[in-house]
Amino acid sequence: DRKDLLELNNYARNQVIEKHLVNGVSFICTDGIIIERHVEIEAGTSVLPGTILRKNTKIGSGCVIGPNSVIENCKIGNNVTVNTAHAYDSEIESGVEIGPYVHIRPESLIKSGAKIGDFVEIKNSTIGSKTAIAHLVYVGDSDIGKKANIGAGTVTVNFDGVSKSRCVIGDYSFIGSNTSLIAPVKLGKGVYTAAGTTITKDVPDYALAIDRGELKINEGYTLRKLKKNK
To answer: In angstroms, rounded to a whole number, what is the distance separating the alpha carbons of residues 136 and 104?
Structure first.
């Protein structure tokens, strides 16, 4: 019955956790932790409550995984932090910081030393070494170079309703907040984009891309509106 099945699952779950304890993995508390039998974890890594590790996931040493993270069929290097994130069918190299509230979708590669902050979604993309994506960004079907900075609100517009295209962002680029990159588009090395810019064509190395309409200010508008509505 259901009670017997729950007891059997708990027994099997605890067996797996005990195996990892013997191998040098740390657990401060095992609440909500589920680790499937084929998962490999090296000594010195900590797994925090609420974490689910599935399929052929492999995790290196010195990592902190969790709390409340789901990692499925991923390869993770050494000294990686994954805080409240979901990652599927991807590779995360050593020294990467992820989270909180990050979604790594399949076929993604996060290279060493990258920082992926809160409310970031990455899909079928490569993120270069030591690149920072701090918050509120969607990166889909893209290749980003090393030591780039992707500002809040940036979106790679990879789908036109029929087909998907790729974006390329070169090394050392600085993408201003609320930039939209309409794929397919390629930004060279060291490119800057002004905040609020929409990129619709390739940008050469070391260029600044600005796309802004003229700001118009109608002085006294609010006072006139209030007076009219009295």
So the answer is: 14
